[in-house]
Design brief:
Layout (H helix, E strand, L loop, with lengths): L2 H7 L11 H7 L16 H10 L10 E6 L2 H9 L5 H5 L2 E8 L1 H10 L9 H24 L3 E5 L6 H7 L6 E10 L13 H4 L10 H18 L8 H8 L12 H7 L6
The structure holds flavin mononucleotide (FMN).
């Protein structure tokens, strides 16, 4: 039985082939929601951002920016409008990953080409993907240094207020935040879906889904029970609740209008 693989799936797994330090690091990922107050060492953030910038990016357009918030007062203000999550206050740095089309608008103006394509949903999606890929590179690099991270979709709770706080220009939108710092506790590896639920060979095949998801639901509940949190619902219940109605999205239900106000018409 391979320990990191088995921990990831919450049950014994063995696979042929070799593991590597990078694979083991990826398999050991866990979100960190409690941080020690020490700042990052000099040069650390810049090294991590170099790793982020090394991610693939659509057509090398690099349509994202990162606003690093370390000032405690500003962090507290960000936390207050991001679902009031304490982990944002605790982490020495909170990185706001932005879809950023403002640089391309500048290029178009400089080259006098027009920039109609910026108004299309495709460009918003491209910039959100660019931001996510950069963030995940940064996250893995951070974990390789013993740092912890937690993505924060709560940063989309009040996008207009956050844009104002961070002084974002038009065509820039915080897609998500990323808390970064030294973990106060080791955290727990959360089991993932059985692999044959996400990996399809040649064509999509959802035969066996009811059994697979029932099994995963049981595993997820057993995982919580082992942590002394038996009151938490399994994956099916938790996931269904998240999509039961628009109310479950809170203020994010009006994202389309908000994006338009921030300079993304999404044609
Ligand atoms: C885009 C995104 C947004 C997230 N937003 C939050 C958040 O606002 N608060 C939080 O505590 N965790 C957040 N998470 C962390 C997820 O809850 C976590 O990744 C998931 O439960 C799996 O757990 P793990 O990362 O420990 O494996 C977010 C993750 C992603 C990818």
């Amino acid at each position: 039985m391979e320990q990191p693989l088995s921990a990831r799936y919450g049950e014994p797994v063995d696979l042929p082939g070799a593991s590597t330090a990078v694979l083991d690091l990826l398999l050991a990922h866990r979100s960190v929601r409690g941080y020690r107050p020490e700042p990052l060492p000099d040069g650390c953030l810049e090294r991590l951002v170099a790793a982020a910038q090394s991610a693939s990016t659509s057509s090398n357009l690099q349509t994202y920016s990162i606003v690093a918030v370390a000032d405690p007062e500003r962090k507290a203000a960000v936390a207050a409008i991001s679902g009031n999550q304490d982990l944002i206050r605790q982490a020495p740095v909170f990185l706001c990953f932005c879809a950023d089309l403002s640089r391309l608008a500048f290029a178009a103006e400089r080259q006098d080409t027009g920039s109609e394509a910026l108004d299309y949903l495709e460009m918003f999606l491209m910039s959100a993907l660019d931001a996510a890929l950069a963030a995940q590179n940064l996250a893995v690099a951070a974990e390789s240094l013993g740092l912890g991270i937690c993505y924060v979709g709560g940063a989309r709770s009040q996008p207009l207020a956050l844009a104002e706080l961070l002084k974002l220009p038009p065509r820039v939108f915080v897609v998500f935040g990323l808390a970064l710092g030294w973990p106060a506790e080791p955290g727990i590896v959360k089991g993932r879906l059985p692999q044959n639920e996400v990996l399809h060979r040649e064509t999509y095949d959802d035969a066996g889904r009811p059994e697979r998801l029932a099994h995963y639901d049981e595993l997820s509940r057993a995982g919580y029970a082992a942590q002394g949190r038996a009151e938490l619902p399994g994956w099916l219940h938790h996931s269904a609740e998240r999509i039961a109605g628009a109310a479950a999205l809170g203020p994010r239900a009006t994202l389309r209008q908000t994006l338009e106000a921030l300079g993304f018409p999404l044609q």
